[in-house]
TrEMBL record:
Protein name as it appears in the record: Laccase
EC number(s) stated in the UniProt entry for this protein: 1.10.3.2
Species of origin: Pyrus ussuriensis x Pyrus communis
GO molecular function: copper ion binding; hydroquinone:oxygen oxidoreductase activity
Residues of the Plastocyanin-like domain: 40-154, 167-303, 404-536
GO cellular component: apoplast
Function: Lignin degradation and detoxification of lignin-derived products.
Keyword set, alphabetical order: Apoplast, Copper, Glycoprotein, Lignin degradation, Metal-binding, Oxidoreductase, Repeat, Secreted, Signal
């Protein structure tokens, strides 16, 4: 494969010492109202010999884990004490008819201003597993993020062996400089933003970095016991490989949906995705972990082993190992049992084909006189200054148009020789309107406009089935015959391969305005995003709920 079609991935290393900070799986409680208080505040934090103030929730980096049971109702009051406006997105929660609680700024709400509060209220219905929450404004999710653990409802259990203990593993990034400062500078000069200085595991880079002896996540395990790791890629710009030296990982869930179990020595986890794996402590007692120049490490240590023993490093795929990525993703399949069916839409009412492209636009104040833009179907999305959901619900005129095209206006050889031509990229707040309960097939096609990339796309308000993927140009005459319509993996975030395409299907049964965007933060900032308007169904019980009284003002 041509080098232009290789995407660099990064590695996360495990030294691990699983000790008392692992949470025991407890017997489920009655469905209840769970209340949390999130205080957004600035705290000084040191990593890699650098100290700086960062925005946190409740002073933690990462922030607190939300523990809830399927069927519970959550009330999370967010009070903003920081100098930045804020909003929180509950990534992967469907928010049925309740986009007011979804969180993306200027999509479903205006931001929570300094000194103000907003209470997110929503039900956790028909979902169980690992999700996460994060800031959804500016680049603040660099430090404002945390896990969501949804236990099965009372009387049900995991469809895999009960683990002895479990823990959350949040993979993130660290910059030595202030993130908002360098992003603003890069935007002003028309340059890509700086790469991070390190990856982190639960906010800690691990012992391969300077000044990090205290900043290593560790976990102690007992010989013969099985542990459940809830792994979340909360990074901003890097998809990651993850593995543990000497240990097999059994994948049992992705994006809070159970999968057919399979064994692997490493997982690929794109930005925004979650993966649950079982790890059986069946190796010779010792200390184990994962490396490139930014690889985060943690320690998995067998009980009774001395801390002076040097840990082992795992063998992970090369950062540009596309064959591993394709093979790994092909193994991901829905459980598809009577209790956990895969309700794949077999008949499609609406077919969409979106091309992913980069371009440059004039910028007289920028260093090279231009700046980067990114687009879907040659449209670079412009954020409004009023929440799109408010504009839709209250029928406000002039905020957005519903003429987002179903396919690009100019077809071309999408993954052929690198192109620099301007295909007429425009900027606008253009949404795609979908009638309630229609079944939708969306093909996302990477292109070689300026450069190629892999892109993790997240759809708010929905799960979808990944029915097909491939390298090269999507062929509508041949490729659908290869779709998996029996047990495709169900997700909320999917990677579009470099120089390739991905096909997803979903039923538009959740009315409201729902954001879809690349989860690479700098691509989102360049305009690689759009939104769907899903119309109300017949009757008030199939319509968007009224807005809460404390919705932040615009």
């Amino acid at each position: 494969m041509a080098s232009s079609c290789l995407r660099k991935r990064f590695l996360c290393a495990f030294i691990f010492v699983f000790c008392g900070f692992l949470g025991l799986i407890t017997s489920p409680a009655e469905a209840a109202i769970k209340k949390y208080q999130f205080d957004v505040q600035v705290k000084k934090v040191s990593r890699l010999c650098h100290s700086k103030p960062i925005v946190t929730v409740n002073g933690g980096f990462p922030g607190p884990t939300i523990y809830v049971q399927e069927g519970d109702r959550l009330q999370i009051n967010v009070t903003n004490h920081a100098q930045y406006n804020m909003s929180i997105h509950w990534h992967g929660l469907k928010q049925y008819r309740n986009g007011w609680a979804d969180g993306p700024t200027y999509v479903t709400q205006c931001p929570i201003q300094t000194g103000s509060s907003y209470t997110y209220v929503f039900n956790v219905t028909g979902q169980r597993g690992t999700l996460w929450w994060h800031a959804h404004i500016l680049w603040l999710r660099a430090t404002v993020y945390g896990a969501i653990v949804i236990m099965p409802k009372q009387g049900t259990s995991f469809p895999f062996p009960q683990p002895y203990r479990e823990t959350e593993i949040l993979l993130g990034e660290w910059w030595n400089v202030d993130v908002e400062t360098f992003v603003n500078k890069a935007t002003r000069l028309g340059l890509p933003p700086n790469s991070s200085d390190a990856h982190t595991i639960n906010g800690k880079p691990g012992p391969l970095f300077p000044c990090s002896e205290k900043h290593t996540f560790a976990m102690e395990v007992e010989q013969g016991k099985t542990y459940l790791l809830r792994i979340i890629n909360a990074a901003l710009n890097d998809e990651l490989f993850f593995g543990i030296a000497g240990q097999n990982l059994i994948v049992v869930e992705v994006d809070a949906v159970y999968t057919k179990p399979f064994t692997t020595q490493a997982i690929l986890i794109a930005l925004g995705q979650t993966t649950n794996v079982l790890v059986k402590a069946n190796q010779a007692p010792g200390r184990y972990f994962p490396v490139d120049n930014k690889t985060a490490t943690a320690i998995l240590q067998y009980r009774g082993v001395l801390n002076t023993i040097l840990p082992s490093l795992p063998q992970l795929p090369n950062p540009n190992d596309t064959s591993f990525a394709l093979s790994y993703n092909k193994k991901l399949r829905s459980l598809n049992t009577p209790n956990f069916p895969a309700n794949v839409p077999l008949k499609v009412d609406r077919k969409l084909f979106y091309t992913i492209g980069f371009g440059k636009e004039s910028c007289p104040s920028c260093i090279n006189g231009t700046r980067f833009v990114a687009s879907l179907n040659n449209i670079s999305f412009e954020m409004p200054h009023v929440g799109l959901l408010q504009a839709h619900y209250f029928n406000l005129k002039g905020v957005f148009k519903t003429d987002f095209p179903d396919r690009p206006s100019t077809p071309f050889n999408y993954t052929g020789a690198p192109l620099t031509a301007n295909l007429g990229t425009s900027t606008g707040t253009r949404l795609s309107k979908i009638a309630f309960n229609l079944t939708v097939e969306l093909v996302l096609q990477d292109t070689n406009l300026l450069t190629v990339e892999s892109h993790p796309f997240h759809l708010h308000g929905y799960n979808f089935f990944v029915v097909g993927t491939g390298i090269g140009n999507f062929d509508p005459a041949k490729d659908p015959a290869k779709y998996n319509l029996v047990d495709p993996v169900e997700r909320n975030t999917v990677g579009v391969p470099t120089c390739g395409w991905t096909a997803i299907r979903f039923r538009a049964d959740n009315p409201g305005v729902w954001f879809m965007h690349c989860h690479l933060e700098f691509h989102t900032g360049w305009g690689l995003k759009m939104a769907f308007v899903v119309e109300d169904g017949p009757g008030s019980d199939l319509s968007v709920l009224p807005p809460p009284k404390d919705l932040p003002p615009c």
